[in-house]
Amino acid sequence: MRKIVVFGAGGRAGRRVVAEAAARGHAVTAVARTPYPAVAGGRVTVVAGDVTDEASVAAAAAGHDAAITTAARLDVPGVDFYTAATHALVGGLAAAGVPRLVLVGIGTVLEVAPGRRVLDDPDFPSDQRAFALGHVAQLDVLATAGLDRVVLAPPPVLLDETARTGRYRTGGTAALPATSFSYADLAVALVDEAASPRHHRALVAVGP
After folding, report:
1. Residue 40 pLDDT exceeds 60
2. Alpha-carbon span 4 to 25, nearest angstrom
3. Domains in the chain, CATH or no CATH each
4. Measured CA distances, 177 to 21, 112, 147 (Å)
5. Model confidence over 170-198: pLDDT tens digits?
6. CB of 11 closer than 8 Å to CB of 31
7. Spatial separation of the C-alpha atoms in residues 89 and 138, rounded to whole Å
8. Mind giving me the DSSP string for 24-44?
9. How far is Cα 111 from Cα 108, in angstroms, rounded to an integer?
10. What is the SS3 assignment for 175?
């Protein structure tokens, strides 16, 4: 059994990560801006926390073996949020002695050809660019961090609510072809990387 802290635990991806980890018997601390009732037979502790505040991250993460973050904000600029959150996670986890961080990335930072990302397409939607650039900022912060981490980036499609299959595949930095991918199977991949790390200090595509 591992002790896993999940940031962004109140969102669609975060709730599935919490449920997936608890179902495997891990002890889970679910960190959310607005706490919600805990479930999963006492294996989940829900706490309030701010992923952009290093002290808050350190306090929530103390005593854990690994951290997962699915945190996102749509009400503030993406670059501002992801820069602040990633700095806070790196510093807070180091202060708490947590050696492993698994992050959710975004498919638009993956490549469609060597050196050409999805977001580099001239026709990339302008209303999505700010959020995509926030994830680029996340990668920039991680590039200079000593923390063992992996960023799992699902395909550049809308994640869906279909049932868990437990199946997924990983690649490199090229987007995996897909027309759909579920939050539930993304959660499987995230918990796998927290419990039994296979990728280190890398951006990794994940998909069906």
Report:
1. no
2. 11
3. 3-207 (3.40.50.720)
4. 27, 10, 30
5. 999 999 999 999 999 999 999 999 999 99
6. no
7. 11
8. TT-EEEEEESS-----TTTTE
9. 8
10. coil
